[in-house]
Task: structure prediction
Amino acid sequence: MQTNLAPEFQSTPEGREAEEILRRCVHCGFCTATCPTYQLLGDELDGPRGRIYLIKQVLEGATPTASTQLHLDRCLTCRNCESTCPSGVQYGNLLEIGRNIVEAKVERPRQQRALRWLLKEGLTSPLFKPAMKLGQALRPLVPAALKDKLPAKAPARAHDWPTRSHKRKVLMLLGCVQPAMMPNINSATARVLDAAGIQTLVADGAGCCGAIRSHLSDQAGGLADMRRNIDAWWPLVEGLTGAGKVEALVMNASGCGVTVKEYGHALAHDPDYRDKAQRISALTRDLSELLPELVAPLKARLKTKAHPKLAYHPPCTLQHGQQLRGGLEGALRELGFTIDLAPSDSHLCCGSAGTYSVLQPELSKQLRDRKLKALAPLQADTIVSANIGCIQHLQGGCSTPVRHWVEVLDEALG
Result:
């Protein structure tokens, strides 16, 4: 795609990156066929190709409008289009550049600004945990629109963290909302790794991976979160503490994982953090990437013979963002589980997409209902996924238990 950048973007890193991405696009439209929002709305501007044209126009000097912003807002950033694209167009990076430019040029209505501020500050605040506990205690009084966002109280086992020391050590990010909403995911991860002879370490100074602020067009805030995490992790990465050196940075929320794997790209122009960010990205592994090598030691410790029948929803951040497919299902089958993908639309987004379910509730619920309908023929005992956002979003629309796969494995290990 031929592009003529406006003077204000010609000398910027963002402008040069956007131009390079745009030149890869050949207008084929394969991306449109796999775009969830295009399938729902049928509008070219609500598909990747249309949004690419909107961003191109802005980069060439056109004045963006509230309509431009709306079409970009409606994108889930599921990156299904990247899996489909034969030309390797890095749509996710282009969308982030376009959104940041439009955000600076189009003033949002006051209500939108307030909600977006509340999300990026509230979800990453220390006050989120007590607020979540209060909401759970007062659940019958909570408005229906918010009940879907409130998980059940965590089991007592959620606070049972292994205490054994192992030669093999990994570092894990607890996340910003996960410790308050579903703490058992983190402790189950530590217990499963402990059963395989791996010790899980946590850096107290780490917090939100940066995705929330970045996806809400607070670029500076997102980068600040990333730098803070690198500073917190670096002593353990370099083996500068008494705990020893870690072999990997493990993520059990695929949304955080895809973000941390891209720290090297996000901080490429920061001379103080560029090299460290690349090192962190190279060390980062989704938990499922470790699972195949853990099958043998875990199989010897499995205590439960009758496993629940599982339906697996692969998060977009895992199958499209990290391009990880098949490994999790294969390893769990080796461990004796029956696990299957939906017979149709397993590649499509469930509608959670970080804060999308709050900002675009109507589209989000349509996609959720579509996903649950696709999973229904499996008649599973439990639906499993690999990202807290997907788990809570799907649970809000069905009575079948929806859990992280590591929780199910942890229970089977006893």
